[in-house]
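fyi for ur records
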Amino acid sequence: MISYRAAYKYQLHEDALFATGILPGRPLDTQFIRLSTDGTLLIRKGYAWDGASSIAVDDLTIMQASLVHDALYQLMREDALTIDNARRKADKLLRSMIVADGGWRIRAAWVYRAVRWGGLHSSEEGREVLKAP
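which gave:
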């Protein structure tokens, strides 16, 4: 029997670094994610994420933003980051990264509103572990 999680569409092919502006009191380090005290986020090769969620559509202007946003929300689900301090910053970073990567401001605002409205449960709950056979 195996255990697995569904809903991941993408897997990072090489390590990626991002400046987040989110400053934890101590370095946070998991198997695939490291957030340093200066706000540098390292997402390691092999990290899996689901891209844009809900009503947002995957395209090149949202791929990096969704990767970073998913990694930060994972740190919140694992209680490494507090939701009160990091969620709004992560959501604003998502919005600014979409624009920086060529997305329309109106779309970035729409995605931001969607994660502000429906993202809280994603920052609190992990993905269900499934079993097969």
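The chain has a mean pLDDT of 88. thats all i got for now
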